[in-house]
Design goal:
Order of helices and strands: HHHEEEEHEHHEEHHHH
Shape: globular
Mean pLDDT: 82
Strand content: 5-15%
CATH topology of the largest domain: hpI Integrase, Chain A
Helix content: 40-55%
Number of domains: 2
CATH architecture of the largest domain: Orthogonal Bundle
Strand order of the largest sheet: 1-2-5
Radius of gyration: 20 Å
Low-confidence stretches: 96-100
Distance between the termini: 34 Å
Number of helices: 10
């Protein structure tokens, strides 16, 4: 069997289909349709779903948030009052901007909104309740078990060649690769970077290479229509 680097949308739909309950189905749907991290999905609260606007407010929970001085670009720590590079005072405005970077308001498609509404109607009426009352370990189990029931093989890391099981992050990868297949323009890359909450453009750009198989396509174009 040929090893693949990422999941395709029909395979994720199959995982949803074999999910044991509405909660598990929705977990897989949000990870693959929003491209959010598992920590972000598990922290999502009912009140952070805006059905009128069709959005979900995601708190950026990744610890390694990189913050730089606007003057000299030296990296700042969370507690820095002054830049260690140029000595400029870190203003409240910069800190406010940093906090805003930790929040992403993501659009949600209509089918997923309908699924969210149906699921939320089964929860207690407290709007501050977490959407999923799951810990990280249990969420990983759900994704892995759904992949097993769907009969999906393990994936191979395109950079290291290591074989890996299907995990929540592989659903985020699938979202990113799909987005690049639909639009790999400069604007598409920029919007995907914002959507995923990547600080580094290079982190986002790797999906373009995976999705487009750029090297092979470039090479094939060199010899297309050559008589010999």
């Amino acid at each position: 069997m040929t090893m693949k680097a990422y999941l395709k949308l029909p395979e994720i739909e199959l995982m949803e289909h074999v999910a044991g309950c509405q909660r598990d189905q929705l977990l897989i749907r949000l990870l693959s349709r929003l491209g959010c991290r598992i920590s972000e999905a598990l922290a999502l609260k009912v009140e952070e779903i805006d059905f009128e606007q069709g959005t979900a407010t995601i708190m950026h929970l990744k610890r390694s948030m990189k913050i730089s001085c606007p003057q000299c670009r030296v990296r700042l720590g969370n507690r820095h009052q002054f830049c260690p590079g140029c000595g400029v005072k870190v203003s409240k405005k910069i800190r406010s901007q940093q906090e805003k970077r930790r929040i992403r308001v993501l659009p949600v498609d209509e089918a997923t909104l309908a699924m969210l509404e149906s699921y939320i109607n089964t929860l207690p009426s407290d709007g501050k309740s977490p959407l999923f009352r799951l810990n990280r370990h249990r969420a990983w189990q759900i994704v892995r078990d759904c992949a097993r029931r769907a009969g999906l093989p393990s994936l191979v890391n395109p950079e290291t060649g290591r074989v890996r099981g299907i995990s929540p992050h592989r659903l985020r990868d699938a979202f990113s690769v799909h987005a690049m297949k639909v639009d790999d323009s400069g604007d598409g890359l920029r919007l995907l970077q914002e959507h995923l909450g990547h600080v580094s453009f290079n982190t986002t750009a790797k999906y373009r290479k995976i999705a487009g198989e750029e090297h092979r396509e470039w090479y094939n174009r060199l010899w297309h229509n050559r008589p010999y």
